[in-house]
Design brief:
Layout (H helix, E strand, L loop, with lengths): L1 H11 L24 E3 L3 E4 L10 E4 L3 E5 L4 E12 L2 E11 L4 E5 L1 E2 L5 E2 L3 E4 L2 E11 L4 E11 L2 E10 L5 E9 L8 E11 L3 E4 L2 E5 L2 E7 L2 E4 L9 E3 L2 E5 L3 E12 L4 E10 L4 E11 L3 E12 L4 H4 L6 H4 L5 E12 L7 E9 L3 H4 L4 H5 L2 E11 L5 E12 L4 E16 H5 L13 E13 L16 E2 L17 H7 L1 E11 L3 E3 L3 E14 L2 E7 L4 E7 L2 E13 L2 E6 L5 E17 L10 E8 L6 E7 L13 E17 L9 E17 L10 E9 L3 E10 L1 E3 L5 E5 L10 E13 L35 E12 L9 E13 L4 E10 L4 E12 L3 E8 L6 E8 L8 E7 L5
Parallel strand pairs: 32-37
Antiparallel strand pairs: 1-4, 2-3, 3-5, 4-5, 5-6, 6-7, 6-10, 7-11, 8-9, 10-11, 11-12, 12-13, 13-14, 14-15, 15-16, 15-17, 16-19, 17-18, 20-22, 21-22, 22-23, 23-24, 24-25, 25-26, 26-27, 27-28, 28-29, 29-30, 30-31, 31-33, 33-35, 34-35, 35-38, 36-37, 38-40, 39-40, 40-43, 41-42, 43-44, 44-45, ...
C-alpha cells in the first residue's frame, strides 16, 4: 500500500503524467497486465527509509520506465541503471519487484538477432557480466547465468553462479583463468568453484585446458589466493624439479610463505636430492614505510657425496672428483637499510658470512661462485644536531675462499667537520680578514682487529722467525672454522689501534688577481698496542725483541698549490659554427714530508742481524719498530713539485631544433685532455716521475672515447732497469718512452629510453624469488631495438730486447631486437682477439603469448654453457604454472 500512495502523490503533483509516454516504441517483451502506469522520466529516486529496503533506490532508463502499481513492479527499458547503496546494475532491461525484493536483468535482442545491453552487476569491488541476473536486495542473495567475473588477477567463467549474503560466490561448471579474453587461451576447468572476495578461490578436482585441449595436468583440489591490492596472503610455494650433476634428481624451492602482517613476510623453503642431500632456507623480508627495510636469509645445507672417491678415478666425470666429501654448511645474508632522516641515527647492516665451502656448493650465478672474498659490516652512525660532531660504531668481518677470517670488533670513530677557527673562539660576525679562512677539523678512529690466522706473532718484515728470540709460537689451527673456546687467544693476539687526524685548512687567496693560492698542512697520529725494540745477541747470532704494550706513530706534511683558468676563443662566424673555445687549467703544487726514517723519530731502528760467514762483516738492517700492522710513514725525504695541465675544447654551433636566428648550442669536442706528473727535489736520482696523459670525449653524441697512457722520461738498461738519463732528444723528436696505453670505445644506441616510474613506498616487504642466471627480471617489448658495443685495446711495448710487445684486444656487443610486437631477441657476446676465442656469449629469444611468456636462452661457451626453455603463465598468481627444460653445466645445478 505504501508504494501505491507514493505513486499517487507523484501523479497528483504532476511529476508523473501518463500522457508523456503515449506512442513510445519499446523492444518486444512479454505482455504485462493492463493495470499499468507508463512514464518517460529519465530518473526516479524513491526514499524508503523503513521496511525491507535499507537505503535509497535510484534508477533510470533511456527509453522508458513502466510502473505496475498493483503488482509493485517497475520495468526499465533501454540503458537501464539501478544504484542501491554499494550495488549497481546496468542492462538493456531491468525489472524491480518490490513485493519479492528481487532485481532481474536481461539483455534485449536487436534487429539483427544479437544481444545488446548485457547485464553488468557491481557489488562493492565485485563485478559480474552475465546473460541473466537475479538478485534479492533484502537477503543479498543472487543467481547469475552464463557469468564472467574478475577475482583479483583472475577471471571466472561460469554457467550458473549463486551469491549468498556473505558475498561469497558458488560457481557451477566453472573456468578459472588469468587470460582477459572472452575466449581464453587457457583455463583451469572445475565442476565447482567457491570464490571468497578479496581472500581466495577454492575448487574441487580440476585439470588444465590449453587452446580448448584438455591436458592431464591437474590436482584433487585447488587454492588460489586473491587478496586485495597491496596485500599478501600466506600460501604454499610449489617446488621446481630437475637433475643435478652431483646430487641426482631434486625438488627445489618448495615450502610455505607466511604473511605475518603488513611489515614482515617469511619464505620457508627446502631442497631435497635423490642422493641424500638437502637444503633448508629461511628468508625474511621486512619493510616499514618511511623508516627502514631489510632482508634476513639463513641457509643450511647438507651436501652428500659418497661417490667422490670413486669419481676421482673416472675420466668421464671430473666434477665429482673435484668436490669435497659429504659436509654440512651454512650461510647468513642480512641487509638492513634505513630511510635518511635529519637528526636521527642511522643503523645499517650488510652481513654476508658463513662456511667457506657453502658458496662453492650452493650458488646461483658465476659471480657468486668466483668471488674470492666476502665482507660484512654492522654500523650505527649519528650526526649530533646543530653541532659539527658525529660518531659511528661498527662491527666488521671479512673472509676469503681459503678460510681466512678477519674481524674488527669494534670499530669506533668520532669526528668533527671542519669549522672556522674564529667561530670556535668568538661569536662575532665575520669581518673578511684573511685569517678568518682558517678551519679546523678532527677525526678519531679506534679498532680491534683479530684473525683466525696466527699472523700477529710472526717476525717483523726483514727477519726470519728462526733468527728472532722473544716471539711466542702461535698454535696452528683449522682456518675454516672458529669456536668460542678460541676467542680468548684470538683477542690476545689481536691488534688494537687508535688513529687521530687533524684537518687544518688555511684558506684560499688570490695572487696577482688571476692566480688561486691554497696553502695546506696536515697532521695525523696513531696509537698502537705493540712496539718492538731490537737487540743483537752475538752469542746466539740472533735478534732479541723486547715488546712494549704501547707505541705512538705520527706524521705531518705541508704544501701549497697554485692554479688558474685560461680561456681562449676563436670566432669563426661560419654558416653553422659560431665560435670555438679552449679552456686551459694549469696547476702546480708543492709538498714537503720529512724523512721519518731518521732514528730521531723512533719509527725505525737499524740493528745488526747477523755476520757474513765469509768476510765476518756485520750485517745491518733497518726495521720498523711497529710491525706490519701499524700505519708507519715511509722512509726518505719528500720535497716534490707536482704539475698538471687540463684542457677542454667546445664549439658553439647554431641549433637545428630552434628556428630562431640567434639560437645556439654548445658541442663538446674534447671533454678533457690532461697531463700530470711530479718532480722530487730531495731524491738523489730519478727525480722526475712518470708522465700520465689521458683524454676522453664523445663522438657523434653516442660514442664515448677514453684514452690513457703512461710515459717514462728516463732510459732503461738492457736488463730493463731505469737509469738516471733522460730520453728527451730534440734532434730525434724523442720526448719520453711509452710504457703502456689503453684505448676504450663504447657506444650505446637506444631509440626509446625506458621510462622510469616513481611509486610511493609501502610497508609490504618484497617477496624474494629464486635467482635464475638464465631468466631476466623484466623484458620490455616496447623498445624496438638496442645496441651496445665496446672495444678495448691495451698496448705495452717491450722494454728489453728479449721481451715482446703486449697487445690485448677485446670486443663486446650486446643488445636486443624486436622482430615483431610479440617476438624479441637479445644477445651478448665478447671476443678476445689476443686468444682468438669467444670469452662469453648468450642468445635469448622471448615470445609474448598474451597471457603466457616463453623464453629460450642459449649459452654456447664458457662456465655456464647450456640452454634453458621456459613457458610460464604471466600472472604472478599462477607463477608456478610453468614448464621448464634446461641443460647447462654451471657446477652443481
Amino acid at each position: 500500500m505504501r508504494y501505491i500512495l507514493i505513486f499517487l502523490l507523484l501523479l497528483q503533483f504532476g511529476i508523473l503524467s501518463p500522457s508523456q509516454v503515449i506512442g513510445q516504441q519499446r523492444p518486444q517483451l512479454p505482455a504485462t497486465p493492463q493495470d499499468t502506469l507508463i512514464s518517460g522520466l529519465d530518473t526516479v529516486t524513491v526514499n524508503t527509509p523503513q521496511g525491507d529496503i535499507e537505503t535509497t533506490i535510484k534508477y533510470s532508463a533511456r527509453d522508458s520506465i513502466q510502473f505496475e502499481v498493483d503488482r509493485k513492479v517497475v520495468h526499465l527499458y533501454g540503458d537501464a541503471k539501478i544504484n542501491y547503496g554499494s550495488i549497481s546494475l546496468d542492462a538493456a532491461y531491468i525489472e524491480i519487484d518490490y513485493d519479492s525484493n528481487m532485481l532481474t536483468a536481461t539483455p534485449l535482442t536487436d534487429s539483427t538477432g544479437s544481444d545488446i545491453g548485457v547485464p553488468v552487476f557491481v557489488d562493492g569491488s565485485e563485478k559480474y557480466a552475465a546473460k541473466r541476473i537475479s538478485y534479492n536486495f533484502k537477503t543479498k542473495k543472487g543467481r547469475i547465468a552464463e557469468v564472467v567475473t574478475q577475482q583479483g588477477e583472475g577471471y571466472i567463467h561460469g554457467e550458473i553462479v549463486k551469491k549468498n549474503e556473505n558475498n561469497e560466490a558458488f560457481i557451477y561448471h566453472a573456468k578459472y583463468t588469468t587470460c582477459n579474453l572472452e575466449h581464453p587461451h587457457f583455463y583451469i576447468d572445475a565442476r565447482r568453484i567457491k570464490a571468497i572476495p578479496n581472500s581466495k578461490i577454492m575448487s574441487g578436482p580440476f585439470n588444465l585446458v590449453i587452446s580448448d585441449i584438455p591436458t592431464p595436468v591437474g590436482f584433487l583440489f585447488g587454492l588460489f589466493p586473491t587478496p586485495k591490492s597491496q596485500r599478501r596472503a600466506s600460501g604454499v610455494i610449489v617446488p621446481s624439479y630437475g637433475e643435478s650433476n652431483a646430487q641426482g634428481f631434486y625438488l627445489r624451492g618448495g615450502g610455505y610463505y607466511f604473511a605475518w602482517n603488513d611489515y614482515i613476510g617469511t619464505r620457508l623453503t627446502g631442497d631435497i636430492y635423490s642422493l641424500g642431500g638437502y637444503n633448508v632456507t629461511v628468508d625474511n623480508s621486512y619493510r616499514k614505510r618511511y623508516a627502514y627495510s631489510g632482508n634476513l636469509n639463513i641457509q643450511y645445507q647438507y651436501f652428500k657425496n659418497d661417490e667422490a672417491d670413486i669419481a676421482a678415478s673416472l675420466s668421464t666425470n671430473d666434477l665429482l672428483s673435484s668436490l669435497p666429501p659429504s659436509t654440512k654448511t651454512f650461510w647468513i645474508n642480512w641487509s638492513h637499510t634505513p630511510e635518511q632522516k635529519p637528526g636521527r641515527g642511522r643503523f645499517t647492516a650488510s652481513v654476508n658470512a658463513g662456511s667457506t665451502l657453502h658458496q662453492r656448493l650452493h650458488y646461483t650465478n658465476t659471480t657468486q661462485y668466483l668471488s674470492p672474498t666476502f665482507n660484512s659490516s654492522i654500523s650505527y652512525q649519528k650526526n649530533i644536531t646543530n653541532t659539527p660532531f658525529s660518531y659511528t660504531a661498527k662491527l666488521r668481518q671479512g673472509q676469503n675462499s681459503n678460510g681466512t677470517m678477519n674481524f674488527v670488533l669494534p670499530d669506533l670513530s668520532f669526528s668533527m667537520s671542519q669549522v672556522s677557527i674564529s667561530e670556535l673562539f668568538s661569536d662575532a660576525p665575520s669581518t673578511g680578514r684573511w685569517y678568518e679562512q682558517f678551519t679546523f677539523g678532527y677525526g678519531f678512529t679506534a679498532n680491534n682487529t683479530i684473525s683466525n690466522v696466527p699472523t700477529t706473532r710472526t717476525a717483523p718484515s726483514g727477519l726470519s722467525t728462526e733468527s728472532v728470540v722473544g716471539l711466542a709460537a702461535a698454535a696452528e689451527r683449522d682456518t675454516g672454522t672458529i669456536s668460542l673456546d678460541d676467542f680468548g687467544r684470538l683477542w690476545r693476539n689481536g691488534r688494537r689501534a687508535a688513529d687521530h687526524s687533524f684537518q687544518l685548512g688555511l684558506g684560499s687567496y688570490k695572487v696577482m688577481k688571476y692566480l688561486n693560492f691554497s696553502p695546506s698542512v696536515s697532521y695525523a697520529e696513531s696509537w698502537v698496542d705493540r712496539k718492538f725494540t731490537y737487540t743483537y745477541n752475538p752469542d746466539q747470532n740472533q735478534v732479541e725483541i723486547d715488546t712494549a704494550n704501547f707505541g705512538r706513530v705520527y706524521r705531518y706534511n705541508a704544501g701549497a698549490s697554485l692554479s688558474t683558468n685560461i680561456y681562449g676563443t676563436v670566432y669563426v662566424k661560419g654558416k653553422r659554427v659560431e665560435a670555438i673555445r679552449h679552456l686551459l687549467r694549469p696547476s702546480i703544487s708543492y709538498n714537503y714530508t720529512p724523512d721519518f726514517g731518521n732514528e730521531r723519530y723512533g719509527f725505525y731502528q737499524t740493528v745488526q742481524t747477523g755476520v757474513n760467514s765469509d768476510t765476518q762483516v756485520p750485517i745491518y738492517q733497518t726495521l720498523s719498530r711497529f710491525g706490519s700492522g701499524a700505519s708507519v710513514p715511509g722512509r726518505g725525504l719528500q720535497s716534490a713539485m707536482s704539475f698538471s695541465l687540463q684542457n677542454s675544447v667546445e664549439m658553439k654551433v647554431r641549433s637545428k631544433s630552434d628556428s630562431t636566428e640567434n639560437a645556439f648550442e654548445k658541442v663538446s669536442l674534447i671533454n678533457n685532455l690532461g697531463l700530470s706528473g711530479s718532480y722530487n727535489f730531495a731524491a738523489d736520482s730519478l727525480n722526475l716521475s712518470t708522465i700520465s696523459l689521458n683524454m676522453n670525449t664523445t663522438l657523434l653524441k653516442v660514442i664515448n672515447l677514453n684514452f690513457s697512457s703512461t710515459f717514462d722520461p728516463y732510459k732503461i738498461s738492457d736488463d730493463g732497469i731505469r737509469i738516471n738519463e733522460y730520453v728527451f732528444d730534440i734532434n730525434q723528436f724523442k720526448l719520453a718512452r711509452l710504457t703502456n696505453a689503453n684505448l676504450s670505445l663504447t657506444a650505446s644506441l637506444n631509440p626509446q629510453a625506458r621510462r622510469s616510474e616513481t611509486t610511493a613506498p609501502t610497508n609490504l616487504p618484497d617477496l624474494q624469488q629464486n635467482n635464475n642466471p638464465f631468466m631476466p627480471e623484466y623484458v620490455d617489448f616496447k623498445i624496438p631495438w638496442t645496441l651496445n658495443v665496446d672495444f678495448t685495446l691495451y698496448y705495452a711495448p717491450a722494454q728489453t730486447a728479449t721481451a715482446e710487445d703486449r697487445f690485448n684486444k677485446t670486443f663486446g656487443v650486446n643488445g636486443s631486437v624486436n622482430l615483431t610486437e610479440k617476438w624479441k631477441v637479445t644477445y651478448n657476446a665478447n671476443y678476445d682477439f689476443t686468444n682468438n676465442n669467444i670469452s662469453y656469449s648468450q642468445v635469448s629469444i622471448y615470445r609474448d603469448l598474451h597471457c603466457w611468456d616463453m623464453s629460450i636462452t642459449w649459452i654456447p661457451f664458457g662456465f655456464q654453457r647450456g640452454y634453458n626453455l621456459t613457458i610460464n603463465a604471466r600472472s604472478s598468481l599462477l607463477r608456478d604454472l610453468k614448464l621448464t627444460k634446461r641443460n647447462y653445466s654451471s657446477g652443481l645445478y
